[in-house]
Design brief:
The complex is a heterodimer of chains A (about 375) and B (about 270). Chain A has helices at about 5-20, 25-35, 40-45, 65-80, 80-90, 95-100, 105-115, 230-265, 280-305, 315-340, 350-355, 365-380; strands at about 120-125, 140-145, 145-155, 165-170, 180-185, 195, 210-220, 225, 270, 275. With about 375 residues, chain A is of the alpha+beta class. Chain A folds into three domains: about 5-115, Orthogonal Bundle (Butyryl-Coa Dehydrogenase, subunit A, domain 1), CATH 1.10.540.10; about 120-230, Beta Barrel (Butyryl-CoA Dehydrogenase, subunit A, domain 2), CATH 2.40.110; about 235-380, Butyryl-CoA Dehydrogenase, subunit A, domain 3, CATH 1.20.140.10. In chain A, a hairpin with a 2-residue loop joins strand 2 (about 140-145) and strand 3. In chain B, the strands form two sheets. Chain B has a nine-stranded mixed sheet with strand order 9-8-7-10-6-1-4-5-11. Chain B has helices spanning about 35-50, 65-75, 95-110, 130-135, 190-195, 205-210, 220-225, 250-260; strands at about 1-5, 10, 30-35, 55-60, 80-85, 115-120, 140-150, 155-160, 165-170, 175-180, 200-205. Chain B is globular, with a radius of gyration of 22 Å. Helices cover about 30% and strands about 25% of the residues of chain B. With about 270 residues, chain B is α/β, with parallel strands linked by helices. Classes of the chains: A alpha+beta (about 375), B alpha/beta (about 270).
Chain lengths: ~375, ~270
């Protein structure tokens, strides 16, 4: 796809910002400490990244899905975890409100998350409800003008630094599977809301993840987002958009693997010549480049479909599936090309290898994407 | 009040520099960037806009693709762009360029409280002449090498960064100030700025637009009218790799002193 002048300019902004601001020191600090960096969060917010896809009337930038995909890709190309900083508010955080929120809810919650002042995260997964989100056992029981929430959400990215969390809970306790689930926006400071310990992750360190525990949390009825008992379909729609972002993140990681592999293959000499001059290495690089470009085109195609208002469920899953697997294959090859040095933390590919791994797991594993793609073809 | 900024699209000299057979730069084969010092001028203008809410207009002279640069500046916060473009202007040296840009600015209009910012110099020619020449041709006071700018009523107090110190100059508006990189850190475009930049006003001033201005004389503009002619362009020979002295402590220092003494440097 040939980008138009506007999208080329957006790409230039994201690339310039990431290359200048995501210094090696910052990347190392995030990876080593695992702590959230508020300075870079605020700086990204200042240039409109947190509200990229949020409509202008709610304090966002009003950009399209293609711009959003370019943003996540370019940020992830330099540092995967920092792409998540900008992604959340546009995707899983702001997504449910943009899809199903009332006018009051949109006006209350979207402007502060678009400006980066507040952080809103998404809590669907539970210890017993991962790929099978219909297995949700968190409950929300009406009590006067409120709901009382009880349950435990796990692997909630950003929860330790969040102000609000979108929680999916069973409101019709008799309904089976994915039916009878509703969506609530919950203030993290409410009595009964607590965070588990920070997960020690393999990669994407610097964006903390933990459980969110809800114990008799009294939530006003106006915190119900969208229609009662219909939350699951909005979770799926939100994840639909989220997959596009994750696919773009995977393209950024894969491109970074390729960049590092090309650079190293030209520098490293063995048997008296550059390792780039050995066919075994050059073929690996050719395979990586081809796959990265194919993944990128799938992502852009899915983004353009969404911008055109067309059904993009399959396209998003194809992009996520292919890009995530590409990121993993490219990370493997990039480390292989680096040899022993690729196993050492001083080289970026060591972190890329760990950062790539999550791409085919979160926001729907590769196998879940395959189920979505197959269902689209076989259940018609 | 408004602020005018003059900007130039220059070849990205961090890449390969290509030269035409006639000695001029082969601009078509090189990537272009916004001249770095001009970015400091733009930032100075936008900082004042943030404080005062005034309009910022960017002026450039160049071929039609220079519109892309003006759009990028608009995505940073510039309100309006003026592109001075015409075959008659091609190949102008600093003298001719300043004449044409001054004519363009004068045609647009300079009010009593206006300020013009320029970059100190462009990385392609490194002359630092165009900004001051524009001021001369518009009969405006000028302060070059600004490293700090403060407003003082209708005046500006500018810290001029000189090689051996600095100089504080108070200047009345309208005036022209050339900016050095120490003045500020240029901002990026914003996502919203990019969304909006293509609907901001952009005026193209051609030879037809400016031909009746007193500063425009066909014999003193363009390549033929330029008093400067390029005699020869060449890449200077690279210096040798130098001598590396290994080790630390007195022995190495003594070696260094010995080499410098032998060359009669010390």
């Amino acid at each position: 796809m040939i980008l138009d002048a506007k999208h080329e300019m957006q790409r230039k902004l994201f690339r310039q910002f990431a290359e200048n601001e995501f210094t090696k020191e910052l990347q190392d600090e995030l990876d080593q400490t695992g702590e959230f960096n508020w300075d870079i969060h605020r700086k990204m917010a200042k240039y409109g990244f947190m509200g990229c896809k949020i409509p202008v009337e709610y304090g966002g930038q009003g950009a399209d899905y293609l711009t959003y995909a370019l943003m996540v890709e370019e940020l992830a190309r330099v540092d995967s975890v920092l792409s998540i900083y900008a992604n959340t508010s546009n995707s899983l955080g702001g997504g449910p409100l943009m899809l199903a929120g009332s006018e009051e809810q949109k006006k209350k919650y979207l402007p502060p998350i678009a400006s980066g002042e507040k952080i809103l995260v998404f809590a669907l997964t539970e210890p017993g409800a991962g790929s099978d989100a219909g297995g949700t056992v968190t409950t929300a029981v009406p009590d006067g003008d409120d709901f009382i929430l009880n349950g435990r959400k796990c692997f909630i990215s950003g929860a330790p630094v969040a102000d609000w969390v979108v929680v999916f809970a069973k409101t019709d306790l008799k309904a089976k599977g994915s039916k009878g689930i509703s969506m609530f926006i919950v203030d993290m400071k409410l009595p009964g809301v607590s965070c588990g310990s920070h997960e020690k992750k393999m990669g994407i360190n610097g964006y903390p993840t933990c459980d969110v525990v809800l114990e008799d949390v009294r939530v006003p009825k106006d915190c119900l987002v969208g229609p009662l008992h219909k939350g699951f379909q909005y979770a799926m729609k939100t994840l639909d958009g989220g997959r596009l972002g994750m696919a773009a993140q995977a393209v950024g990681v894969a491109q970074s693997c390729l960049d590092e592999a090309v650079k190293y293959a030209k520098e490293r000499k063995q048997f008296g010549k550059r390792i780039a001059d050995f066919q075994g290495i050059s073929f690996m690089i050719a395979e990586m480049a081809t796959e990265v470009e194919a993944a990128r085109q799938l992502v852009y195609h899915a983004a353009v479909l969404k911008d055109a208002g067309k059904d993009a469920t399959s396209a998003c899953s194809m992009a996520k599936f292919f890009a995530a697997e590409t990121a993993n294959r490219c990370a493997y090859k990039a480390v292989q090309i680096h040899g022993g040095y690729g196993y050492i933390k001083d080289y970026k590919v060591e972190r890329l290898y760990r950062d790539a791994r999550i791409c085919s797991i979160y926001e729907g594993t590769s196998q879940v994407q395959e189920m979505v793609i197959a269902n689209g073809l076989l259940k018609k | 009040m408004k602020i005018i900024v003059t900007v130039k699209q220059v070849p990205d000299t961090s890449g390969k520099v290509a030269v035409n057979p006639d000695g001029t730069l082969d601009r078509a084969s090189m990537q272009t960037i916004i001249n770095p010092d001009d970015m400091n001028a733009v930032e100075a203008a936008l900082t004042l806009k943030d404080q005062l809410g005034c309009k910022v207009v960017a002026f450039t002279m160049g071929p039609p693709p220079a519109e892309g640069m003006l759009r990028e500046l608009m995505a940073m916060g510039v309100d309006e762009g003026v592109l001075i473009s015409g075959r008659e202007f091609g190949g102008s040296d600093t003298y001719a360029t300043s004449q044409i840009v001054a004519a363009g600015i004068d045609t647009y209009g300079v009010d009593q409280d206006d300020i013009i910012f320029s970059g100190r110099q462009a990385i392609d020619g490194d002359t630092a002449q165009v900004g001051p020449q524009i001021a001369e041709k518009l009969h405006l006071p000028q302060v070059s090498y600004a490293g700090e700018i403060k407003r003082d009523g209708s005046s500006l107090i500018v810290k001029r960064m000189l090689e051996d110190g600095y100089m504080l100059v108070k200047v009345q508006t309208p005036c022209l100030i050339t900016c050095v990189k120490e003045l500020n850190e240029p901002r990026y475009m914003t996502v919203r700025g990019i969304e909006e930049c293509f609907s901001k006003p952009l005026t193209v001033m051609s030879y037809e637009t400016l031909k009746d201005h007193p500063l425009i004389d066909p014999t003193t503009i363009g390549l033929k009218g330029s008093p400067t002619n390029i005699y020869k362009s060449f890449t200077p020979p690279q210096k040798g790799i130098g001598v590396m002295l290994e080790g630390d402590g007195k022995d190495t220092t003594d070696k260094l002193v010995g080499i410098l003494s032998a060359k009669h440097i010390i």
